[in-house]
Amino acid sequence: MRILNARQMREADRATIHDVGVPSIVLMENAGRQVVAALEALQEDLAERSVAIVAGKGNNGGDGFVVARTLHQRAVDATVFLVGRVAEVKGDARINLDILGRLGVTVIEVADEGTWELHFSEVSQHDLIVDALFGTGLSAPLTGLYETVVADINGSGLPVVSIDMPSGLSADTSDVIGPCVEATVTVTVGAPKIPLILPPAERKSGEVVIADIGIPLGVLEHLDGPRLDLITRDSLRPLLPPRPADSHKGDYGRLLIVAGSTGKAGAAALAARGALRSGAGLVTVACPRSVLPTVAALGMEYMTEPLEETPAGTVTYAAAEAVLATRADVLVMGPGLGQGEGVSTFVREIVEKSAAPLVLDADALNAFADDPASLVGREGRAVIITPHPGEMARLAGCGVEDVQANRVGIATDIATRHKLYVVLKGYRTVVATPEGRVHVNPTGSPGMATGGTGDVLAGMLAAWLAQGLDAEAACRVAVYLHGAAGELADAAVGEVSMVAGDLAEHIGAALLELTGRRRVVDRPGAP
After folding, report:
1. Residue 238 falls within a domain, yes or no?
2. Per-residue pLDDT tens for 484-509?
3. For residue 494, what are the CA distances in angstroms to 52, 443, 486, 489, 491?
4. Is residue 487 situated within a structural domain?
5. Could you tell me if 352 and 472 lie in one domain?
6. pLDDT for 309
7. CATH number at residue 379
8. What angle is formed at CA 352 by the lines to CA 347 and CA 357, rounded to 5 degrees?
9. Which residues is 160 bridged to in the sheet?
């Protein structure tokens, strides 16, 4: 599902109106009615409630006027507070405002702060506020009367439903550019917008409902500009058809996981569990010889191979030849591998010479911290890297705070410059491709902030790659399922008590939910 900026949303509206022929007033009508549907879902006894619509002078206000009319027709007590003068309202919005007058719906004109102060007590006596001040057209911080209105809405303590975006946010950035409404629910029209999906602005949006107002999918898909997509359940299901009845383990890939060191055997086992629970046919863990008994004891379903090691219990460069000679459809390197000159040389040798697709995590990425330019994908072999913000900062040569402030931009830059598939982990995990496409994952739980969950993800990525998905699709499926499994583990044991093993054990349930065989979690905003 496409995530749009302000220019793209304007072009989607223009194309729908002028090229497809859907009248603009029909789009406004559809938007208003979708908001009313969201109000009814939020308040089951809406007919017994009163609603204040705080509206601006533009099309967002026009959507609000449709909301007021529709509520009036359903015998819901609705009052419009127009922030501005009636004479300033034009076009479709004015048509809908005039209809309110003929129907006898109360419209209070608020032209200055004194008038707002006089009438705010009336607003606060309602049960719910609809924010219809500003949509995607805002590009500068709110000041004056609008700033006061927003502050009072936030201080009212009432549930707030914002139309399209919380007023005060800009559709072009995930930053909070100034004072803004803090919504309980945001009903966004046509497609999600950047500040509704990416932090920190998305925290102002509450539950996000994506409303179909009649903009054709073909219009959204062919918009120019940055390609940013929200990963959804519906977009992934076609990638996961049922397995044929005559399947055998050879159909689903051979994985080699090079991982583990003294004191970090669990990382190797967690990666293997993630791979197995995600459907890999055969999984082998290659680890330092002294660590192998521990890794083998942690799991019965995967195989193990010993590697030459250093006195410190990490792999040595001499082990590279054995790894390169092993038959594997996909190679995972990094979880718990440890650091040191021998490890770095070992990793670099395999990345340079292996013909198998690679998933590089943790210490495999740290091997390139001093020379990120040498970490480059090549034609015919996909390389997926899975950095957390600290590892990404080292690869990008910047601070962690810089990564967190521009997750999409930095992930895209590394992916396109180095010809890699980047999975930047964290809240709203970002997947960036060598071609510049970007996907944002909506699933996950705070309970996933615990050691080992990234190791599970590395195994999951490799498993889907080994089962025949292309690298981009494998990344999308794996990060979505990883987050969904985290949600299910959270529901089972709580976010505080969750450990990485709990997440791994819920991958199967997450997969059942995704494929529609069992629906366990109903995620707001995820179709």
Report:
1. no
2. 999 999 999 999 999 999 999 999 99
3. 38, 16, 10, 7, 6
4. no
5. yes
6. 95
7. 3.40.1190.20
8. 85
9. 129
Q: How many whole angstroms separate alpha carbon 474 and alpha carbon 493?
A: 28
- What does the alpha-carbon distance between residue 234 and residue 227 come to, in Å, rounded to a whole number? 18
Q: What is the pLDDT of residues 14-29, one digit of tens each?
A: 999 999 999 999 999 9
Q: Which domain holds residue 181?
A: 6-226
For residue 385, the SS3 value is: strand
Describe the chain by its helix, strand, coil percentages, rounded to 5: 45, 15, 35
Helix, strand or coil for residue 402? Answer: helix
Stated pTM of the model: 0.92
Tens of pLDDT, residue by residue over 401-434, are 999 999 999 999 999 999 999 999 999 999 999 9
CA distances from 353 to 322, 323, 377 (A): 12, 11, 12
For residues 378 and 303, state if they share a domain: yes
Separation between Cα atoms, residue 352 and residue 348, nearest integer Å: 6
Check the CA dihedral 449-454-459-463 and report its sign.
positive
Q: Is the model's pLDDT at 523 over the cut of 70?
A: no
Which of 458, 479, 500 is the C-terminal boundary of a domain? 479
Q: Quote the number of domains for the chain.
A: 2
Strand partners of residue 305: 286
502 part of a folded domain:
no
**Which among 171, 183, 174, 167 is positioned nearest to 134, based on CA atoms?**
167
d(CA 76, CA 135): 24
292 and 381 in a single domain? The answer is yes
Beta strand segments in 212-308, E: 228-230, 254-258, 282-288, 303-307
